[in-house]
Structure formats: C-alpha cells, structure tokens
Amino acid sequence: MSPKNVNTTDASDVDNYLAALPEAAREALSKLRQTIKSVVPEATEVISYRVPTFKYRGSLVAYAAFPDHCSFFVMSPAVMEAHKADLKGYDTSKGTIHFSPDKPLPESLVKKLVQARLAENEARAGKSRSSK
Residue 65 sits in which domain range? Predict the structure, then answer.
C-alpha cells in the first residue's frame, strides 16, 4: 500500500506526507482530507502503512498518492459493493478507489462512503457516536 516513487517515505505525520507531494496530488488529497474531517471531526489522523489514515473505533479510511494516480482506501468490500452504482466509471478494487489528481472524487461521494464506513465501525463496536 505504500506509495512508490513518491517522496513520502520519511513522512512522520499527515502534514509532512502531504507537503512531500506534487502540487496536484497535494491539493486533491488535502480536499479529500477536509471532506473526511467534516464527516468525522473526532477521528484521529495517523500514518499507517506509510499512508494517511483516519481512525475512529478502528481504521476508518485512508488515502495516498502514487506516481500515476491517487487512491482512497475505503477498507470495506461491503461498502464498495453497496455503493457499486455510485462508483461506476471509477477504477476500483476490493476496497479502493483510484482517481486522477486533476479529477478528484466528488465531495458528496466521499461523504457517503465515509458515513457508510462509520456505520460499519459503530456497528462492530456496538456503539453510536451519540453514545460516546
């Protein structure tokens, strides 16, 4: 999952990771980061497997830059399957969406996917955000 040929291997935190990226990737991933934060402001940001990862009741979502694309790691085949219609036209794999930095993912799609992951994590934990 680590970026190849993108100079982020020494990134100790998310800000350093983003600062090491080419401008287009940095802008796309910064926007993605803000959208995720808007859905789950209480999530913790860490570098995990050398990529920025949001954690809330376990791993939630992650993102990364690669030489030829960016990735949004939804980390859930079930969420990917449930939103298959929304993901039509995107290059996807089991739990990941690949996109070009010059064509970032729509904010509404990111919010929908993050909310679905949040619901999965809460169901697994047997809690909701309001019962913290």
Answer: 1-102
Measured in Å, how far apart are the chain's first and last C-alpha atoms? 32
Considering its fold, how many domains does the chain have in total?
A: 1
- Would you state the pLDDT for residue 39? 97
pLDDT in tens, 82-125: 999 999 999 999 999 999 999 999 999 999 999 999 999 999 88
At residue 2, the pLDDT reads: 39
Domain assignment of residue 113, yes or no: no
The amino acid sitting at 59 is S
What distance in Å separates the CA atoms of residue 56 and residue 44, rounded to the nearest whole number?
7
Q: Is 50 left (phi over 0), alpha (psi -120 to 50) or beta?
A: left
CATH of the domain at 69: 3.90.1150.200
Confidence of residue 12 (pLDDT cuts 50, 70, 90): confident
Total residues found in the chain within this entry: 132
Q: Would you give the DSSP letter of residue 74?
A: -
* Alpha-carbon gap, residue 67 to 72, rounded angstroms: 15
Tokens of 67: 């030489």
84, part of any domain: yes
